[in-house]
Amino acid sequence: MVDHDAGYKRLFSHREMVADLLTGFVDQAWVGEVELDTLERVSGSYVSDDLREREDDIIWRVRWRDRWLYVYLLLEFQSAVDRFMALRVLVYVGMLYQDLIREGQLTASGKLPPVFPVVLYNGDARWTAVLDVRELVESVPGSGLDRYRPSNEYVLLEERTYREQELASMRNLVAALFRLESSREPQDVCCVIEALGEWLQDEERADLRRAFVVWLRQVLLPRRMPQVEFPEVENLQEVRTLLAERVKEWSERWRAEGIEKGRAEGRAEGRAEGRAEGRAEGRAEGQREGQREGEAQLLLRLLTRKFGPLDPATCRKIAEADAELLLTWGERLLNADRLEGVFADQ
């Protein structure tokens, strides 16, 4: 299994992630009736070898009314949409039911418990596969055979369909994960990491914090910056610092290339004095930029603490602002009741 799949599996091996997935992304009445504190991972003797080998699928169960409800989560990270996903879901649910029968995990009336299948898809291509296996079986009107077409539906959670503004308004771990997946700028990632650090600061959530750190370092960052080798990091703050350092490094590299170009042009024109002035100006500019980036990071942190997770547009606005504007926003932050008040008239 690729690192991306393994990282996702580790994240959704935590109760908090599954709870936030249900409450934040499943708009069905029964979700309000489940006892989220009873969520437990289904593994070991409950699942056969056939299902255990399906490492990209995760099975949980939770108390709903007077019975267990099983949540079957399939992680789908293929580049191409699987046209027959509905059939795969039917087969996997059938395998789970066989295991539950074997282990005697039936309802009080001797029936099979309900299973809620969810497919989590993060591909760039739009999901076009049918959601019910019934639609994969040819209909023969007037033959009487349609009554035998199997019917089993799954719920699709397609990351690309959720808007950033919608996700940013949610205090939800899965929404944070989706935001990280869709991020395009280091500042966007820093905003989400800042929020995660606050949400997961309790010691009992240390393992989940670590799962996010591992996923960020082994999956997200290498995918965003494939030519960069990242050092080991232990916590979310170190990841945020690492990102800030990389942004600074890229800026310095860009400035160095510009200065070198200016020096080359100066040599061609024989202007030695201009080259010296260019080097001095470059050093001074680097110092000013480093200070400005530090002020921007501080403002990001203060805004997140006061108003919650910031959207990428706000993060980019702060990252691109000059030192004077950052100071103005910092002063407004002291008395602002809403985020909009900080950026009034900007």
Instruction: State the low-pLDDT regions, or none.
Output: none
Number of strands: 5
- Rg (CA only): 26 Å
Percent strand: 5-15%
Could you tell me how far the N terminus lies from the C terminus, measured between alpha carbons in angstroms?
A: 47 Å
What does the overall shape look like? elongated
Which secondary-structure class do the elements indicate? alpha/beta
Q: Tell me the number of helical segments per DSSP (H or I, 4 or more residues long).
A: 13
**Helix proportion of residues, in percent?**
40-55%
Largest sheet: 5 strands, mixed
- Number of individual domains: 2
Strand order of the largest sheet: 1-2-3-4-5
Order of helices and strands: HHEHEEHEEHHHHHHHHH
The pLDDT mean sits at: 81
